[in-house]
Amino acid sequence: MKKISCIFLAFVFLSLGVVSVTQAAAPVAAPAQQEEPAAPVISSTPNLKTIDNAIGQRLQALVTSGDSLEVEPQETFGTRSLGLILTLFEALRAHGESFFTNFTAVPQVGAWLNQQYNDVVLSARWADIGQLLALVLGGAVAMGMLAQFALSSPRLHLIRRHNHNFAERLASSAGWLILSLVSMVLFVGTALILMNESAPPRLERYVVMNVIYAIALQRMVRLLANFLLAPYAPRLRIVPLGDSYSRYLQLWIRRISFVMVYGYFCIDVARLVRVPAATIASLNSLLGLVIVVMAIVIIVQKRSLIAMLIRGDITPSMPNLNIWQSLRLWLARIWHQLAIAYLVIGYAITMLGVGGGFSLMLRGTILTLVILVVMRMLLHAVAGFRTGAGANISRLVLRSMFYLSVWMAAVLSIVASWGVDVSSILFNPWGQRVTGSALFIIVTILVAAVGYESLYSYIDRKLNPKDSSGRSIAPSARSLTLLPLARNAALITIIGVVSLMILSELGVNIAPLLAGAGVIGVAIGFGSQSLVKDFITGLFILMEDTIAIGDAVKIGDHSGVVESMTIRTIRLRSVNGDLHILPFSEVTMIVNSTKDFAYAVMDIGVAYDSDLQHVIKSLKEVGEALREVPAYINLIIEPIEIFGVEQLADSAVIIRCRLKTLPGKQWEIRRAFLLRVKEKFDVEKIEIPYPTVKHIAAAPIAAPEAVVEDGVT
Q1: Contacts of residue 97, Cβ cutoff 8 Å, sequence gap at least 6
Q2: Backbone CA torsion sign across 641, 644, 649, 653
């Protein structure tokens, strides 16, 4: 509020300053006989000095002419919104002044009391009223207390009595109420008798009887509350509540009844004793405000209890909630807000003196409840439109826009149901412009969201194709590569275009933005040549379908499976889990092992003394048998090819063969083939040589005979 006020004041002062400057700079009107300066004559061979003089004379003529140029300010969504907000503030200010005027006369009560005190006649009259009130009230209270004392024993007996069923409890409570009413009847009867015996003037009689009636009415309300709630006599309680809740209700009933009853009678007496009408209106407003505040305090203190009663045993975590259960949960969550709003609106309507206030309150209440129920049903229906695993931003936008539309329609309908002329706000020139701009923005977002949702659904169907029987089939690698890139590019384009359209509608000049974007693009192109090279190289690789997501490739010294691609990089996941991120500009050579088809190449080594024809026959049998296996029948495209002896190695004869397979299945077929070759060779007794090392031990050397020389061995 402060920011808007400051902006408004700044706008006013700026306007005044512009007007002042314009008036100060306005030229004095030229006399009628003054002729417009003639245009200068320029020779056929002009020079710089002549041209300069001509331009100066023309500018002087334009400045001193009486024609004023009016520049019409550009109208934008911001200025429209500001105008509409200021209109609303003006209406609120007018109603606010009318509302707060009701409280301005409260201080006049002090002046009125001072007048009553200083006037001898008036002060003597109030003294007579005080004496009469003391006499009548004293006698009536004494008679009432005497009756209470006399009936205390039967009342206590009814309180302590054991009641076996509801009928007995009701009879005991009714008996207690009747006995309690006796003292009140004696109180009022005694007051009337004393009043008749005193025979006071009419004004004094009216004031005193108002006090007596107020006391009697307030006691009557207390007795009825005790009859129903029995806060200190559980055996007589009719309403099934606990002791704490009964005492709480009884306490607040006493407080509210005290304020209402004594406030009403005081205001009635004030009218009689000629208190100023403005002061009486202020007292009425103050009394209503106190009652509303007390009711709001009760609502805030017991909002959890009432919410629990409304909700019952329903919890938000329960599955498959129906519309009734959803409404109960929603009402339990916001009931206190609705109740407080109802009290505040009702009080405001009453204080503003709106004609037909009661009928307006009734109509507004009923229509508000209907609108809230319908709104909740609509929101509950749209809540089923969840975004799943393949969720995208368009679904969230559609749901958010629907929520916003429902809330706006509900708020406007509720405001209109309470008598506010919404059409005068929405259909005046400012309102129409703001509404038109808002609708343009909403429709633009909706069209963009629907368009992107259609594109997303089409791409999703292409990425998750199904056959005629409804079974999912694997999409092509080209689709997995290009369609996500196209979807992301479409999303970026739509967001950019919609943002520019919204900014243009809001009054932002987007021409500098477009020019700046072009300049930034050129700067990026010159300053980031490698980025442009990445983009162009990647574009040609994608267009030529050289690689796709899921291909097993080798790029330079890096190899792995293509995990994802962007317009600038390619990501490879190696067999040990390493992620290689390579810019397209560094891709100079690509080895794609999973393009169109593949070969499972096997080099089988056998011993030199093996029958090679038998070995080749066994390999063919293994290849044919492998093609008959159900798990591999669709993976092997052609029969096995035996190339023959590939190499005469040191310890084996190498025979090369191969199987043509689907792309990416060559490693699986190779492993299955080698397993079956080992099993086949074991059965056929074909030796698969492997390097061996023989250790040959030399014969032991005999020890020389002992030589005996000179008796020494």
Answers
A1: none
A2: positive
Mean pLDDT of the chain: 74
Q: Mean pLDDT over residues 234-257, rounded? A: 84
10 Å Cβ neighbour count for 6?
10
- Residue 64 CA to residue 69 CA, distance in Å, equals 12
**Banded pLDDT at 20 (limits 50, 70, 90):** very low
The pLDDT of residue 675: 92
Q: What is the chain's percent helix, strand, coil content, to nearest 5?
A: 65, 10, 25
Report how far apart, in Å, the C-alpha atoms of 287 and of each of 174, 261, 336, 351, 445 are.
34, 11, 22, 11, 50
Residue 623, Cα to own-chain centre: how many angstroms?
63
CA distances 139 to 186, 498, 652, Å, are: 10, 84, 135
Q: What's 550's DSSP letter?
A: T
For residue 562, what are the β-bridge partners?
572
Confidence band of 39 (pLDDT split at 50, 70, 90): very low
Give the DSSP letter string of 345-379: HHHHHHHTT-TTHHHHHHHHHHHHHHHHHHHHHHH
- Which helix (H) or strand (E) segment is 560 a member of? strand 558-565
Provide the phi-psi class of 627: left if phi over 0, else alpha when psi is between -120 and 50, else beta.
alpha
Q: Does the pLDDT value for residue 25 go beyond 60?
A: no
Token output for 453: 């949702």
The residue to which tokens 């990445």 are assigned: 534
Q: What gap in Å lies between CA 214 and CA 224, rounded to an integer?
A: 15
CA proximity to 223, closest of 266, 259, 185: 185
Q: What is the pLDDT of residues 149-196, one digit of tens each?
A: 888 888 888 888 877 787 888 888 888 888 888 888 888 888 888 888
Element (H, E) at 642: strand 641-648
- Residue 125 burial (CB count, 10 A): 17
How far is the C-alpha of 284 from the C-alpha of 350, rounded, in Å? Answer: 10
Nearest to residue 688, comparing CAs of 622, 566, 604, 616? 604
Q: Which helix (H) or strand (E) holds 227?
A: helix 202-229
HEC secondary structure over 596-609: CCEEEEEEEEECCC
**Residue 16 has what pLDDT?**
31
Q: What is the pLDDT of residues 375-428, one digit of tens each?
A: 777 776 666 555 444 445 666 776 777 777 788 788 878 777 766 667 666 666
Top-confidence range, 177-186, 527-536, 670-679: 670-679
Mean pLDDT of 193-215: 85
User: Helix 120-150 and helix 202-229: axis angle, to 10°?
Assistant: 30
**Local structure of 712: helix, strand or coil:** strand
Integer Rg of the chain from CA: 50
> Which residues fall within 8 angstroms of residue 660, CB to CB, at 6 or more apart?
597, 598, 599, 636, 637, 638, 641
